[in-house]
Structure formats: C-alpha cells, structure tokens
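Fold this complex.
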Amino acid sequence: SAVISQKPSRDICQRGTSLTIQCQVDSQVTMMFWYRQQPGQSLTLIATANQGSEATYESGFVIDKFPISRPNLTFSTLTVSNMSPEDSSIYLCSVVVAGRGYEQYFGPGTRLTVT
Amino acid sequence: RKEVEQDPGPFNVPEGATVAFNCTYSNSASQSFFWYRQDCRKEPKLLMSVYSSGNEDGRFTAQLNRASQYISLLIRDSKLSDSATYLCVALSGGYQKVTFGTGTKLQVIP
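Structure:
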C-alpha cells in the first residue's frame, strides 16, 4: 500500500484567489492522479500528474484553471486558480501502486470552500 | 447513460442481515473492476478487487457477470461498522481510464 498526505486538509478562500494543494507519498509511484468530489457526488478525475512532463487533463478541465506540478515520483501539487464558489469541493490525490495488479489509494483529501 | 451506474440507496438493513449491491457498466471493454468503501467525510479505500471467477474476503463476496455487464458485492452478517458508501470502479483502456460509480449508501441498523 501507500501512505499519502495532503496539505492543507481544509481551507476557506475568497473568490478570485488561488490555492495550491500538496500531495506527498511515502514511496515512489508511477501513476498519480487528482480527483474532485463534490458533495453527494462520486469522484471526478481532473488529471493524471506526469513526472517530468505536463499533466494529462480530462475533458472539462484545463491547465490554466488547474495547473499541476509533479517534480518527482513522490510529490505533486494541484493549484485551483481564480476560484469561484463552484470550485468548492473535496480535492483528492490518488496513486496506483504496483503490486497484485492495479491498486489505487487515496489521500485524505483537501476540503475547499470558496466564499 | 452513465458509464458505471449504481443504485444510490440508502439501503437500511438490520445487523446480521445479508445485503447485496449491483453495479452495471456500459463499456464492454472494461477489463478490471473494484469495490471501494468510503466513510462519511473520508477518502475512498480499496475494499476488494473483483475477479472473473468471483472472490470472497471474509464476509464480503464479489462477483462479475461479463455477459450482463454487472458486478455485485454481497455482505453477509452485516455489522454496524459496515455502514458506509460503496463505490464500484471499472478500468478500461489498459488501465488508463478509471471510472467510479456514484456509490451505494449502506446503513446498518442496530
């Protein structure tokens, strides 16, 4: 398995500002993802964070709004830019660990409220 | 139609009961399936993989029916601690595409 930490665990931000969320994994992982989960909803994949290259974004998500960095195999950041109340959500970092097939683990999440 | 569909519930069952959830998927090319458990205000945690031949882990049994494109999760002898939302996950595209269902909420009642 993998132990994943995220910072901050929660934040309340004003519209128009930006927040950077950090994700740290206790081991090197190849695949790292960022998800969003809005209240009462399931998880929506924002992007795959690629080490040493630009992230791969899902439909509906763009780099200008959600820039992602992945400088190494244990760390990534997601920035939520120019926030609006619609960005209020839980943002989760996730990794896949090589082992018995495909096992995906999630960080504890960052609860963001935009006022 | 959603790629992965689940009955949102809630399923309210008494302690000790057996409960089953189904999850249907629309992409016939989906190759792997999983069940995750998510407690309130917590992150999802892997519960079990779903193998073609079906698999069991204690009180939990997972089944895959490729012909009808659904997977199931059976929980026997429900405990209060089983109360959570259960998310179905389908993988396709050589593990490149991960699709989560919206989850089924289970409430086990004393």
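Chain B has a mean pLDDT of 92.
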